[in-house]
Amino acid sequence: MRNSSRGAVDPFIVMDVMEAARAAEEAGRHIIHMEVGQPSSPAPAHARAVLAETMTSDPLGYTVALGLPALRQRIARLYGEWYNVDLDPARVVVTPGSSGGFILAFTAMFDAGDRVALGMPGYPSYRQILKALDLVPVEVPAKPENGYQLVPEDLTGVDYQGLMMASPANPTGTMLDRAELGAMIETCQAQGAAFLSDEIYHGIEYDKRAVTALELSDDVCVINSFSKYFSMTGWRVGWLVLPERSVRQVERLAQNLFICPSHAAQVAALAAMDCGEELQENLAVYARNRELMLEGLPKAGFDRIAPPDGAFYVYADVSHLTEDSRAFAAEILDQAGVAVTPGLDFDPERGHGTLRFSYARSTADIEEGLSRLQDFMKARG
Predict the structure, then answer these.
(1) How far is CA 65 from the centre of its chain?
(2) DSSP class of residue 89?
(3) Helix ranges (DSSP H) in 191-244
């Protein structure tokens, strides 16, 4: 049976690293995981308890395609609590994770052959999903001096029908302030292009708060998820906020592509939104881990970094240490027992000289990982 050209996407390298780390653990080694952007904490206890109780009385069948009305209403209320934005719940669509949200948004807003601008470095699945949908990812290098975030002049002369931005960003954790985000929205809309804002890491921020694109415009598409701040990666539930005119289009697609998001995950997600105390305790762990990383990585020799404003990543320029980040990451895993992600996932042009370090695990793991990295680099000379 033949394969389609649309399906010929690149592998997600971090998943290969995870598999190599798993194999090492199966062989009896203790591996410190700094490769994957996954909280080590489970879904909030109250969320798990509510779901367990619900499972005794509810068959948890299909929900409507747009998601449980109570969950859509609660997500809309979150925008008032976090950003002072009065959001109509009718504009909220619950999705099968943010990945399902990307598929729905890209399919609803673009035609085959349309060009979507992305900053490099950036989340690799943007480009792969776009390719699989016969869309054209237009990757624009972002400058280190701008925190690896695009600025309006980077788009001069670029032909695009859509622009995807993330703040806080993966892999860097850097954020755009209100003026910077507003400038990018204005630049995009002046082009007649759709602006998509990946806000998956909102809630995980440190010295300043993240700004949602909805504070600046209603004519944007926001993608978010319960995976990161709410510690629900494996539950696969996220959401979109859309312009009113796009909701029915996305609803029809969702009905046919997914039927509905997981009912069980939606029940847990709704309960998780009222678990602020536990979630803030998780955030305190990330904040402590961030301090340790910003102190410990330079001591190990990884001193060319853009300090993260949010999320739980540090992106390091290691071009003075290697010309092959993939081989370097494999060496670190083999000799130090620390799994890290090569930058090639995030930037096919410059990623041979960068690594991403995640600090989403426990503080004890981060301390041990930094100690191993320092010993490894000393031995390496």
Answers:
(1) 23
(2) G
(3) none
Are the C-beta atoms of 121 and 347 separated by less than 8 Å? yes
Q: How far apart are CA 357 and CA 316, in angstroms?
A: 8
Beta strand ranges found along the chain (DSSP E): 32-33, 92-95, 115-120, 136-141, 162-166, 194-198, 221-225, 238-241, 313-317, 338-339, 341-342, 354-358
pTM of the model: 0.95
- Two structure tokens written together for 253: 């697609």
- In the block, tokens 């109780």 appear at 53
Residue 74: pLDDT band (50, 70, 90) is very high
Task: Report residue 34 as tokens.
Answer: 């700094």
User: Residue 314: how many CA atoms within 13 Å on its side-chain side?
Assistant: 26
pLDDT at residue 329, rounded to an integer: 95
CA–CA separation, 152 and 358 (whole Å): 29
What is the rounded CA–CA span in Å between residue 295 and residue 300?
A: 9
Whole-number average pLDDT of the chain: 96
How far from chain centre, in Å, is Cα 132? Answer: 19
CA-to-CA distance for 45 and 129, rounded, in angstroms? 33
pLDDT at position 307 over 90: no
Name the strand (E) or helix (H) holding 101.
helix 97-109
Check whether 182 has a pLDDT greater than 90.
Answer: yes
Q: How far is CA 279 from CA 9, 72, 114, 362, in A?
A: 35, 20, 39, 14
**CA atoms of 228 and 358, how far apart (whole Å):** 12
Whether the predicted pLDDT of 164 surpasses 90: yes
Distance CA 362, CA 367 (A): 9
